[in-house]
């Protein structure tokens, strides 16, 4: 089966600019996650979708970050305006819906550098 | 609140020797425990999980992990390490509500 696809792989922007990331999950996976991974740390959940509904966005900085999952498949994560502290790898993952005992499948991430 | 601790930032072993990467957790209710591996510039890859049943679970690439409820631990093990096992390893816990928490990772280096 095809894995989780993410693009772009790398992005360099200046602070206060905007940026968007795209994710296509594994076919049939209704649950989609966006994580922020800062160097030397584990992934931190930003937002979790079940189909096109938000399950958990408690750690999403909503003043600058937004995410959507139209039609319950692809998802985009946007940052506007970016801050230096947003430099990180943004990982998308998917899993079978409604099963906490199922592993997550990760894309290779987008490495974001803020100048 | 749930949490995961990986007390060692770095583990160094010689090729052919056994390896252990430690993980302890804190969660309300029954935990679902996972180990993932991350290679440079790649996403996390699933290695193994504990849901219920036998405390020793086996996973990919010869890895296994032992669940210890009394010590709230889920240590990753391999009887004979390979140089190619060198990578970053993450322990994670899921709750029944579907919330996932990851540790900060342990860098495993296997020297020839």
How is this structure best described in words?
- In chain A, 0% of the residues lie in helices and 48% in strands.
- By secondary structure, chain A is mainly β.
- In chain A, strands 2, 4, 5, 6, 9, 10 and 11 form a seven-stranded mixed β-sheet that branches.
- Chain B has 112 residues and is mostly beta strands.
- Chain B is built from no helices and twelve strands.
- Chain B has strands spanning 3-5, 10-14, 19-21, 24-26, 32-38, 44-50, 56-58, 64-68, 73-78, 87-94, 100-102, 106-111.
- In chain B, strand 8 (64-68) and strand 9 (73-78) form a beta hairpin.
- Chain B is globular.
- Chain A binds chain B through residues 4, 31, 33, 40-45, 48, 55-56, 91, 93, 98, 100-101, 103-109, 111, and chain B through 4, 32, 34, 36, 41-46, 49, 51, 90, 92, 94-100, 102-105.
Summary of the model, kept short:
Chain A is an all-beta fold and 115 residues long. Chain A has strands spanning 5-7, 10-13, 19-24, 31-37, 44-50, 53-56, 65-68, 75-79, 88-95, 105-106, 110-114. Chain A has no helices and eleven strands.
């Amino acid at each position: 089966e095809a894995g989780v696809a993410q693009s772009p792989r790398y992005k360099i922007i200046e602070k206060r600019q905007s940026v968007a990331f795209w994710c296509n999950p594994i076919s049939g996976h209704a649950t989609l996650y966006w994580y922020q991974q800062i160097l030397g740390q584990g992934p931190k959940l930003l937002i979790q979708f079940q189909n096109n509904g938000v399950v958990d966005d408690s750690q999403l900085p909503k003043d600058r970050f937004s995410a959507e999952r139209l039609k319950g498949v692809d998802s985009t994560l946007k940052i506007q305006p970016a801050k230096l502290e947003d430099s990180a790898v943004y990982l998308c993952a998917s899993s079978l819906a409604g099963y906490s005992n199922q592993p997550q499948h990760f894309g290779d991430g987008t490495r974001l550098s803020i100048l | 609140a749930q949490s995961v601790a990986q007390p060692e930032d770095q583990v160094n072993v010689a090729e052919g020797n056994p390896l252990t990467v430690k993980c302890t957790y804190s969660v309300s209710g029954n935990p679902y425990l996972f180990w993932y591996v991350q290679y440079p510039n790649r996403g996390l890859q699933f290695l193994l999980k504990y849901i219920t049943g036998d405390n020793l679970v086996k996973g990919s690439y010869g890895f296994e992990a032992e669940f210890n409820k009394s010590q709230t631990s889920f240590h990753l093990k391999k009887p004979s390490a390979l140089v190619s096992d060198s990578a970053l390893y993450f322990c994670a816990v899921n709750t029944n509500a579907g919330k996932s928490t990851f540790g900060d990772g342990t860098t495993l280096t296997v020297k020839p």
